[in-house]
Design brief:
By secondary structure, the chain is mainly alpha-helical.
Length: about 325
C-alpha cells in the first residue's frame, strides 16, 4: 500500500506531462513561421475576390465590361454612378435597392434580438432553476437542432394562413397579414429556427458560471430576475455577441424564408430577393451587379468586424462543457 501511491502519482504525472507536451507541440506547430505564412496566404486568397468586387463597383460601365478589375492599377478611374443608379435609380433597369435595404434591416434586427432575449432567459432557467422535467426539456430543445428548415416551411405556412383548430375549436386564428405586417411572419419563423441552437449555446455558457457567485447573490437577497440582470448578462456578453453575429449573418443572407413568408413585393422583400432578380433578368449589367453585391455585404462586414473579438471566445466557451 505504501508503494502504490507513488506509482499512481508517478503515472498520473506522466500522463499529465504527456498531455502537456502534446498540447505544447501542437501549439508550437500552429505558431511556426510556416503556419503563419500559410494563414496569410489563405487570408489573401480569400480576400482577393471581395477586393476585386469593391474595385469593380467604382469603375465606369465601359471599362468594367471590357477589361478586368486588375487593370484599374494601370488605368485608374472612379465613378459613383453605379451606386447612385443601384440605390436611387428610377428606371426599370436600375436596382432601386434603397427600399430593399431598409426591408432587410427591418427583417434582420428583430430576428436577432427576439431569439437572443428568449434564449438567454430559457438558458438561465434551464441552468440555474430547479424544476421537474428540466433535463428532458433541455434534451428536447437540443434535439430540435436536427429538424431541417425545409420541413417546417409548410406547417408554418399553414399555421399563418389557417391558424390552429383543435376538435373544431379555433385555438389560434389565421394571421391574415398584409404588406409590412408580413414582417411579423418572418420574425416568427427566424426566431423558431434560431432558438434551439441559441439555447444550447447560451445554456452551456451560463451553466459554467461559478455556483458560489449565484449562492452569494441569493444570500444577499437577490431574486432570479436580479441575478440574471446584474450578474449573468454582463458575464455572457461574449456568448451573446457570438450568437448575434451568427444569427445576423444567417438572416441577412437569407433568401428562402423571407421570400416565402414576406413575399417578393417592394414593401416587404429583402435585399437578397432584389439581387436575385437583378442577376436573373439583367445579368449583363455588371456595373450594377457589383455595386449591389457590395452593398449587400458591407453591413455584415461591419457587424462582424465590430464584434469579432467576442466571436471565437464566445463559441469556444459555449461549445465545450466541463
Amino acid at each position: 500500500m505504501t508503494t502504490a501511491t507513488p506509482t499512481v502519482a508517478a503515472g498520473t504525472q506522466k500522463t499529465a506531462g504527456h498531455g502537456t507536451s502534446t498540447a505544447g507541440r501542437v501549439r508550437k506547430r500552429l505558431n511556426s513561421r510556416t503556419a503563419t505564412l500559410v494563414s496569410i496566404a489563405i487570408a489573401v486568397l480569400w480576400t482577393i475576390p471581395t477586393f476585386g468586387l469593391f474595385i469593380s463597383s467604382f469603375r465606369p460601365e465601359g471599362e468594367i465590361k471590357s477589361t478586368g478589375w486588375w487593370t484599374f492599377f494601370t488605368n485608374p478611374s472612379f465613378t459613383l454612378e453605379n451606386y447612385q443608379e443601384v440605390l436611387f435609380g428610377r428606371s426599370s433597369s436600375s436596382g432601386q435597392l434603397a427600399s430593399y435595404f431598409i426591408n432587410s434591416l427591418a427583417i434582420t434586427i428583430p430576428s436577432v434580438l427576439f431569439p437572443l432575449a428568449f434564449a438567454a432567459l430559457a438558458a438561465y432557467a434551464l441552468a440555474w432553476i430547479n424544476f421537474r422535467g428540466r433535463d428532458w426539456m433541455y434534451i428536447a430543445i437540443f434535439a430540435l437542432q436536427i429538424v431541417p428548415l425545409q420541413m417546417a416551411l409548410v406547417p408554418l405556412l399553414k399555421f399563418f394562413s389557417t391558424g390552429v383548430t383543435v376538435a373544431g375549436v379555433t385555438v389560434m386564428p389565421a394571421w391574415d397579414l398584409v404588406d409590412e405586417q408580413k414582417f411579423a411572419q418572418v420574425w416568427f419563423a427566424h426566431t423558431c429556427f434560431a432558438l434551439p441552437f441559441a439555447v444550447f449555446l447560451l445554456h452551456n455558457f451560463i451553466s459554467q458560471l461559478p455556483g458560489e457567485l449565484m449562492e452569494s447573490a441569493r444570500v444577499d437577497g437577490a431574486t432570479h430576475p436580479k441575478i440574471f440582470r446584474s450578474i449573468v448578462l454582463p458575464l455572457i456578453t461574449p456568448a451573446l455577441a457570438a450568437f448575434g453575429i451568427f444569427q445576423f449573418l444567417w438572416v441577412w443572407n437569407d433568401l428562402l424564408v423571407a421570400l416565402i413568408f414576406a413575399g417578393g413585393s417592394d414593401e416587404t422583400a429583402p435585399l437578397t430577393v432584389r439581387l436575385a432578380e437583378m442577376a436573373g433578368t439583367r445579368g449583363n449589367e455588371w456595373q450594377r451587379l457589383t455595386a449591389g453585391a457590395f452593398i449587400s455585404i458591407v453591413v455584415p462586414l461591419i457587424v462582424f468586424l465590430s464584434l469579432q473579438r467576442f466571436f471565437v471566445r464566445g463559441l469556444l466557451a459555449g461549445s465545450v462543457k466541463g
